[in-house]
Amino acid sequence: MGVRDDQKLATREKVLLAARDLFNDIGYEETTIRAIAERAGVSVGSVFTTFASKAEVLSHVMGHRLGELYTEFDRVAPYLRGTTADRLSSIFAIHYEFETRRVKLFLAHIAASFSPSNEPDVTPFGRNPRLSQMLFDVLQDGVDRGELRPDLNLADVVDVLKATYAWNYRQAAAAGGVGDAPAMTAAMERQIAVIANGWKAA
Amino acid sequence: MSFVSLNIESPSESPLKVTRRALAKQRTRERVLAAARRLFTERGYEGATIRDIAQAAGMSTGAVFASFADKSELFDEILTADYEVLYAQMVQAARSATTVDAALLGLFGVAYSFHLEQLPLLRASIAVSWTRNEAAERRSRTDLKHIFRLIGEVTQRGIDQGQLKSGIDAKLLAEITWDVYVANYRRAVFDGWTTDALLARLAEQLKVIFAGARA
Question: In terms of domains, do B35 and B138 share one?
Fold first, then answer.
């Protein structure tokens, strides 16, 4: 890797870090590219040569964070125990715990997920393949162990779980951007229990 | 006293003046609201400034502020007006259906087709509801309360008619149904799904949500 690539990578890291803090501290809409550049100690031009737009910066900030989270999951996943509902609850509990540390960032991420972006490099919430796959695997395992109905449409269940998971962040939005992970996890557990009532194998 | 006698002398003039002024004010509000609706639809919430809205309405920024305290009040007024029209239709759809699923698909179908007609405005309202002020939060909570009551009515009727079990947690079922209803808008935003496609999806999701609740 050349010096130029090194520099480019360093700029990228600085920009993502500065953006992460600004989005969370003062809000996504309020944060300008100029402010991000200033905080990162780079020129506005170099932000734009690295990212096409603010939406892309947000997407990469989230992707970066999720990278850390899923490295942790890869370690934990084989050790998930209990019923399918228990395992799903654990997965969501870890997500809530992680995301409420910088909850305004996540609220901005959900808000952005309803606005179309033409940039190919933007991954909105709901299109996170890792989360979907993880939920799918846990459900499939439940089917294989005979706990869940074999005719259950797993993709539909994943859809419902993800929608419910995201909507629980309303609590944080309503509280003005303060996330209470245990309360959100408790809500999610009740919601999973309702869905679980319908997936038991005969 | 002179006041009263003036009124007696020409009874029709003074009230007419008031009416004319009230009418003018009402017309100003409507012009601002129409311009704001158009700009919010075209540019989203953040992209439309009060200055732009005033210009589009053909008046001064000051004249806009005489009718509305700030941009968020303007935005809320548009959404509230929409919501009232929409809610009446949702009630109609819910009450005329015979099964729980038909009622839910009916009421959410009304909402999907309404919002798909003006998707950018919906996108702006959802985005704002996640990141912004208390007024937006209060409004959406009030609107939600009505809709949850309506869904509650549907599930209660389902219980009374023996379609659903009696011990179910109707509130939780309503919440989850609402969650997926909102999340599905992403399919419309990103993949251009139609109302029919969204409803077909919702029908499958309702099967998952209500599977354990059916009698």
Answer: no
User: CB distance B129–A113 less than 8 Å?
Assistant: no
Return the half-sphere exposure (C-beta side, CA atoms, 13 A cut-off) of residue A35: 14
**Domains of chain A, CATH where assigned:** 1-51 (1.10.10.60), 54-196 (1.10.357.10)
* B38, B68, B98 - which closes a domain: B68
Q: How many domains does chain B contain in total?
A: 2
B48 with B74, same domain? no
What are the tens digits of pLDDT across the range A8-22?
889 999 999 999 999
Looking at the structure, do residues B91 and B168 belong to the same domain, yes or no?
A: yes
The amino acid at residue B168 is I
Q: What is the Cα–Cα distance from A51 to A36, expressed in whole angstroms?
A: 12
CA dist B184 → A29, A157, A176, B170 (Å): 24, 14, 25, 21
- pTM of the model as a whole: 0.85
Q: Same domain for B27 and B111?
A: no
Q: How far is A128 from chain B (nearest CA, A)?
A: 13
Partner A, chain B 90-149, Cβ-Cβ below 8 Å: 122-123, 126-132, 134, 137, 141
B152 and B102 within one domain: yes
pLDDT in tens, A138-171: 999 999 999 999 999 999 999 999 999 998 998 8
DSSP per position, A19-60: HHHHHHHH-TTT--HHHHHHHHTS-HHHHHHH-S-HHHHHHH
Cα(B176)–Cα(A199) distance, integer angstroms: 16
> What does each of the 202 residues of chain A score in pLDDT, given as a tens digit?
577 788 888 999 999 999 999 998 888 888 999 999 999 999 999 888 888 888 889 989 988 888 888 888 888 888 889 999 999 999 999 999 999 998 888 888 888 887 766 566 677 777 778 889 999 999 999 999 999 999 999 999 999 999 999 989 988 888 888 889 999 999 999 999 999 999 988 7
Contact assignment for A160 to B176 by CB distance below 8 Å: yes
Eight-state DSSP code of residue B10: S
Alpha-carbon distance A50 to A55, whole Å? 13
